[in-house]
Amino acid sequence: MAVYGIYGRRLHSDMALPELERAEGEPDLFFRRGSIPEPAGAWFDIWQVPDGRAWVRGIKVSAGYVVRYEDRADFLVDRERGIITCDDDTTSGCPDEMMRHFLLDQVVPLMLSLDQPVLHASSVIVGGAMAAFIGPGGAGKSTLAVALGRLGHAVGSDDGLLLTRRDGEVVGIPAYAGARLCADSASVVGGHPSITAAKLRVRDGLPFFTGAAALGRIYVIDPRPSGSIAFHALTPRAAVMALVEQAYRLALDDRAALARQFEDLAAVALKVSAWQISFPRALDGWRELSSAVSGHVAEAFA
Length: 302
Known about the structure:
- The chain is an alpha+beta fold.
- The protein has helices at residues 96-112, 141-150, 183-188, 236-245, 255-271, 286-299, and strands spanning 2-6, 9-13, 29-33, 44-48, 54-61, 64-69, 73-78, 83-87, 118-119, 121-126, 129-134, 154-157, 161-166, 169-174, 179-182, 199-202, 213-221, 230-233, 273-278.
- The chain is built from 6 helices and 19 strands.
- Strands 9, 10, 11, 12, 13, 14, 17, 18 and 19 form a 9-stranded mixed sheet that branches.
- Residues 192-197 have low confidence and may be disordered.
């Protein structure tokens, strides 16, 4: 059992979490394995597969919420005590690596979203300020973050960014050091030319940032291929809609909580400039793309 750092918190776990760095001090959150009683009531969909079937569902219970990964595992999120319990006593089971992915990349940010906005975003430090990249799955958030890391800019994270306010500024707190790339991106950008796995965690040779930093710009990645690299300023209205679409949300049954999150994200959109970025999808152009992005971020603070 050990304590690890994630989203600026300290997580005590009864299983090893090799993706995370060890942390000192009293834990803020706890993870354990155990049995979870079958919840009674109405489930709601959290995420769906393309054909519309739910693959992750949630339900409100007395202790908080249960998050269910169909045929894999249930996670009980006890908000008040800061405890996440996993029950993987299912027909299919849940291998440890899969369980850690669910926990670190989905359940923890879902839990934190009950109190503060958490974006499904990659982040990079450029010139002392943070740039966040949001967009649908497969748009290139992780690839762009790693490409900027290859230019020497510190990568925050590739999958989660907690937002808070400090001294009138919007501050971003990355999930943890690391990035998961698809095989083609890992081969060309990630420095792993012989990769055969569908996805690979990349850390070697990259600078990482694990603290909190002022959020300087938000980039919404257009997943459609473009003939050239282009930046288009977004209105606050367009920005907040993009932020809402790419925010983690667990309290989907609670209209008041959803309204608070919308207000928080609207405040972010008014404070931080947001841009849509379009670019050619050829991976061999990553150096040109990352140079263009770093230059665009730097312009904001020139």
